[in-house]
Amino acid sequence: MVSDPAHPKVAADVAAFAFLEGAMQVLLVRRRYEPYESYWALPGGGLHPDETLEQAAERELREETGVSDVFMEQLATFSEQDRDPRGRVISCCYLALVDGGRVSLRPGSDAREAAWRPLEELLAEIDRGPVLAFDHDRILQYARRRLAYKLEYQNVAWSMLPERFTMSELRHVYEAGIGRAFEPNNFRRIALGWGVLAEAGERPTGGRPATIYRFAEREPRILAESARYRRAT
Amino acid sequence: MVSDPAHPKVAADVAAFAFLEGAMQVLLVRRRYEPYESYWALPGGGLHPDETLEQAAERELREETGVSDVFMEQLATFSEQDRDPRGRVISCCYLALVDGGRVSLRPGSDAREAAWRPLEELLAEIDRGPVLAFDHDRILQYARRRLAYKLEYQNVAWSMLPERFTMSELRHVYEAGIGRAFEPNNFRRIALGWGVLAEAGERPTGGRPATIYRFAEREPRILAESARYRRAT
DNA sequence: TGCTAATATCGTCACGAGGTCTATAAGTGG
DNA sequence: CCACTTATAGACCTCGTGACGATATTAGCA
């Protein structure tokens, strides 16, 4: 497969995250073919002529894992010459946020299997040495930083939660995505201050029942302006 | 110029900003050839086989405008099928910050001329209708948002200032880049609080002389953590 | 029925960042 | 000597938010 260097191969890869079993998980596929045969990798593949990069990312995610209809945002484009041993491949990477309880994994033809892997464990493993195919270790680290930032900045957590959830569940998503424990009461006060949560009943918990919330608007919205050295009168 | 759709043409474009004559300016080139002949556009061009996208952005900026050795950061990749009438061209766009007093413009072979254009006026013109070639109107709007965010987030203003500057000059860069007036005393207190400014003499101003500052470190650094719902003990 | 444990929710305090405003310092030109 | 300009400095106040304890509501159990 020789490629005209003026027209390199272009691909889209996806770092998809979900909150499952109390931890943040990333969606990986096991490669069926060379190169990196049997390695784990981020789902992704070549751009088709009739689609945008975002459409390619959605299609590859659907084809390789069965996951569709999720929040997606462009991350960055990676263009190092040696990132693919087959030749020049430029990869535009996307961040996807998935409600893990809503989707079921169906590995596609290019993948032996698709699976959620705990993010923290995987990142710790990567710190000790290469794990994923291609430059996907680096891409995953990049995606993780963006995930943390995105959660603090916009109300995108609804993408990773069922329709109805408790304040604890919301907090757990934030704690897992940002990688830090939060004071429950402070988190609660601030989350309610966003003005995007609506009450939707109660749920027994083994202790005092928890209020159930839903997102009043399932559209991305800036949660907090960075309010530095505000304007003069 | 027919292109294999599986291997589209890949280009890098640059939105370069500088603070000149009291206003934020963006660097444009006037196109010499079709399509969009004689239109103003962002500097940019096709990726060479032996370079990364960032290297291509630097090279195109240097070749078309004479500007080199500037702060550069990837913005986003645009892949709409119809963004170039010649066929499928995917453009990876970069944000560049330039010290306008340090560089001199030298238009290259692909450009009739290169010029700084006042950002606010240009954006107002864009609001009234298409102005730049291709989808560069949209890319410029995207770049402007990133510029504002970047200034608040990291100490990248040194890229747009001479070695030595006064607090007023620094504030003017922020006001022009973010598009808002700041209370001088607040700005001063907070800028000094960053801990990255060092005093370097005085300069007469027509009133009380201004303290001259320089950046103690000319490396990107986070200025303010987003401190929301901090961790529990 | 009491007691404890567990979980969620609520109230309060303190501190610091940042806004507003006023005062002072140090030049220029009448 | 005074008015004017520009930069710098201090005082004060509000508000967001981190820290911590108190209260509400269930289950389990003797």
Structural class by secondary-structure content of chain A: alpha+beta
CATH fold-level label of the largest domain in chain A: Nucleoside Triphosphate Pyrophosphohydrolase
Oligomer description: homodimer
Strand percentage of chain A lies at 25-35%
Greatest contact between two chains: A-B, 45 and 45 residues
Any overview of this molecule?
2 copies of one chain form a homodimer. The first copy, chain A, is an alpha+beta fold and 233 residues long. Chain A has 2 domains: 144 residues, Nucleoside Triphosphate Pyrophosphohydrolase; 60 residues, Winged helix-like DNA-binding domain superfamily/Winged helix DNA-binding domain (Arc Repressor Mutant, subunit A, Orthogonal Bundle), CATH 1.10.10.10. Chain A contains 5 helices and 10 strands; from the N terminus they run ββββαβββααβααββ. In chain A, the strands form 2 sheets. In chain A, strands 1, 2, 3, 4, 5, 6 and 7 form a 7-stranded mixed beta sheet that branches. In chain A, strands 8-10-9 form a 3-stranded antiparallel beta sheet. The mean pLDDT of chain A is 92. The structure holds a DNA duplex (30 and 30 nucleotides).
Care to give the gist of this entry?
The structure is a homodimer of 233-residue chains. By secondary structure, chain A is α+β, with helices and mostly antiparallel strands.
